[in-house]
């Protein structure tokens, strides 16, 4: 069965890989992409999304979202994702343009176009999803499934000691999103809660040079050996155009994780969210009431899960607590490898 899918991204290296996974999946019909400011500014996110559609030769409408978070001046992460958000990769030039309506409107239009059927991922700051919920409070009832990459549950942050990037960039938006769900169901038991994948689970999904080489092989492409001993910024020599872009993007991401003390690897936060959106059985989840700290001097942006129901609130999230990385990578490599191979045969 093909699911209509909407992706809200702050493209970034792993966001790009999540979009490629969705395009590579026969069970997904990507109906729209919302560009959210985060890893880079919203204009660059939009350019990255349009350039990726050009590279992948697909026509998915790309909208541009808000320039700033709801209340906090935008911070970006060029140190992590590169000056333009895709590491060392360059995308093909394109004359494609974003939609004339903004990303909040794109959310609402996609949900109304596929009532009860739309599957969505939000893998950047939640600014535009929060704006969409203000415009259409019934959005939670219109979505079949929502998977959010954000937060860190009983786990350290990657932006402050306790806060994860997507939530940290716009904590007010995250709080509005997480607190909108039960309101939308007004006393009824919510038919479905958002699946929330924090660093505690997404950091189990670590791309390595060996896995990237497996992907190139699956695509019928040559690949570029990669290690921490390479000179910085060595460019890909892969024969396949998509593999070359992914290798150049991943090398920057490997180098960032290596410098951050994590090893020469890269956490694929957003591709896990994309895979779970198409198959929620990939992860084990626990229902809990959760919320976001907004005023803590040291803890602003921290996500808290009330596992023991101390607050006496209804659960508002299904929080990811377990995943088998091998199952994910086998599926990722099979799908994206075949997609890259098909793309390579047309170029
Ligand atoms: O903290 C990881 C998240 O922040 C990922 O979505 C990554 O792309 C960045 O947006
Ligand atoms: Ca992201």
Automatic annotation (TrEMBL):
Keywords: Hydrolase. SUPFAM superfamilies: Nucleoside hydrolase. GO terms for molecular function: purine nucleosidase activity. Gene3D superfamilies: Ribonucleoside hydrolase-like (3.90.245.10). One of its GO terms (biological process) is purine nucleoside catabolic process. One of its GO terms (cellular component) is cytosol. It comes from the Bacteria. It holds the Pfam family IU_nuc_hydro. This is Inosine-uridine preferring nucleoside hydrolase family protein.
């Amino acid at each position: 069965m093909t699911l209509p899918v909407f992706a809200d991204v702050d493209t970034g290296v792993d966001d790009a890989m999540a979009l490629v996974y969705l395009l590579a999946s026969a069970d997904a019909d990507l109906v729209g992409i919302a560009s959210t400011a985060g890893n880079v500014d919203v204009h660059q996110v939009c350019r990255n999304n349009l350039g990726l559609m050009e590279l992948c030769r697909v026509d998915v409408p790309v909208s541009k979202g808000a320039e700033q978070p709801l209340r906090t001046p935008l911070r970006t992460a060029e140190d992590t994702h590169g000056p333009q958000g895709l590491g060392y990769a360059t995308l093909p030039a394109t004359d494609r343009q974003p939609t004339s309506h903004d990303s909040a409107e794109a959310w609402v239009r996609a949900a109304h176009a596929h009532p009860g059927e739309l599957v969505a991922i939000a893998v950047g700051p939640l600014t535009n999803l929060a704006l969409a919920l203000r415009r259409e409070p019934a959005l939670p009832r219109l979505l079949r499934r929502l998977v959010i990459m954000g937060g860190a549950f009983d786990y350290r942050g990657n932006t402050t000691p306790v806060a994860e990037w997507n939530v940290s960039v716009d904590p007010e938006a995250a709080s509005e999103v997480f607190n909108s769900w039960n309101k939308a169901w007004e006393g009824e038991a919510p038919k479905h809660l958002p699946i929330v994948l924090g660093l505690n689970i997404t950091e189990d999904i670590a791309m390595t040079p060996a896995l990237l080489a497996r992907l190139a092989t699956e695509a019928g492409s040559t690949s570029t050996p990669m290690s921490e001993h390479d000179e910085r910024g060595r460019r890909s020599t892969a024969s396949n155009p998509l593999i070359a872009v992914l290798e150049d993007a991943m090398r920057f991401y490997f180098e960032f994780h290596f410098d951050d003390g994590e090893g020469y690897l890269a956490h694929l936060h957003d591709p896990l969210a994309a895979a779970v959106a198409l198959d929620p059985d990939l992860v084990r989840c626990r229902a809990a009431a959760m919320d976001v700290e907004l005023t803590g001097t040291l803890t602003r942006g921290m996500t808290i899960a009330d596992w023991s129901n101390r607050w006496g609130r209804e659960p508002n999230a299904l929080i990811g607590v377990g995943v088998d990385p091998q199952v994910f990578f086998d599926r990722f490599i099979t799908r994206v490898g075949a997609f890259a191979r098909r793309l390579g045969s047309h170029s």
